[in-house]
Amino acid sequence: MSTIRAAGVGLLIALGALTGCSSTQQAAAPAAPPAAAAPSSPAVATSTPTSTSAQAAPEKGKCLLSDLHPVVGRTTGEAGQQRHTTVVWTNASSSTCTMVGYGGVDLQGPPDPMGTSYSLPRQTSEQPALVRLSPGDKAHSVITWNPSQKTSWTPTKILITPPDETHSAVLDWPGGGVVRQDGATHPGTYLGPVQKGSDA
Fold first, then answer.
1. In this structure, are residues 85 and 145 in contact, taking their beta carbons and an 8 Å threshold?
2. pLDDT tens for residues 88-127?
3. In the chain, at which residue ranges do the beta strands (DSSP E only) sit?
4. 14 phi and psi, to 5 degrees?
5. Positive or negative: CA dihedral 182, 72, 56, 65
6. Which range is least confidently modeled, 10-19, 63-72, 116-125, 166-175?
7. Average pLDDT over residues 139-152
8. How far apart are CA 119 and CA 109, in angstroms?
9. Long-range contacts of 1-8 (CB under 8 A, 24+ apart)
10. What is the average pLDDT across 32-50?
11. Per-residue pLDDT at 150 exceeds 90
């Protein structure tokens, strides 16, 4: 009986050792590899196209006085000879406009037997041309006049009107005395047509 009991105990010990070994092996088994992450889609760069062409200024037809900024430019010519005073027109509006023709000029000054205003005739020998003015562009009109040698009538103001307009601008007269030739057939004082540029 002692021998059989001892053998049984030994068998139980051996079975226990096998069971423990099996449990240890299962615990140490490697875990399943993690699932591979799905590849991410590459980012797509987007941009909004920009326009590189500037918009042209709108067209509005003839230039009105309200579109223009007139100033007196230079006066040229020798003393005792015909002189030339330039009036420069600048398109001060945001639209493109046109000028063609002469407009009008009255020289205004002190009392005179012929009156305080001298309306200048137009220079008909020069053909007018259409002048197209974008915003900021310039045109000019030339007042040709005979300086006074004996008379003392000296204008103080220029009353100037753009072509095809009824409103006038008043500018200071920069010259000296003018020979009055109101009603003369071939006067030496007259207004030329509007021309492109500032004539500076």
1. yes
2. 999 999 999 999 999 999 999 999 999 999 999 998 888 8
3. 59-62, 68-76, 83-91, 96-99, 104-108, 117-119, 131-133, 138-145, 157-161, 169-172, 190-191, 195-196
4. -65, -40
5. negative
6. 10-19
7. 88
8. 12
9. none
10. 48
11. no
pLDDT number for residue 27: 43
Closest by Cα among 71, 63, 108 to 87: 71
Instruction: Confirm if 54 and 135 have CB atoms less than 8 A apart.
Output: no
The amino acid at residue 192 is G
User: Are residues 157 and 107 in contact, defined by beta-carbon separation less than 8 angstroms?
Assistant: yes
Tokens of 18: 């096998």
Q: CA–CA separation, 180 vs 13, rounded Å?
A: 147
pTM value surpassing 0.85: no
Which residues, 6+ apart, have CB-to-CB distance to 84 below 8 Å? 75, 76, 77, 142, 143, 144, 145
How buried is 99 (Cβ within 10 angstroms: 0-12 exposed, 13-18 middle, 19+ buried)? buried
Residues 6+ away with beta carbon under 8 Å from 188: 82, 144, 145, 146, 179, 181
Q: Report whether 144 contacts 189 (CB < 8 A).
A: yes
Given a contact cutoff of 8 angstroms between Cβ atoms, the answer to whether 107 and 178 are in contact is yes
**pLDDT tier at 56 (50, 70, 90 boundaries)?**
confident
Give the residue carrying structure tokens 């009986």.
Answer: 1
Is residue 27 helix, strand or coil? Answer: helix
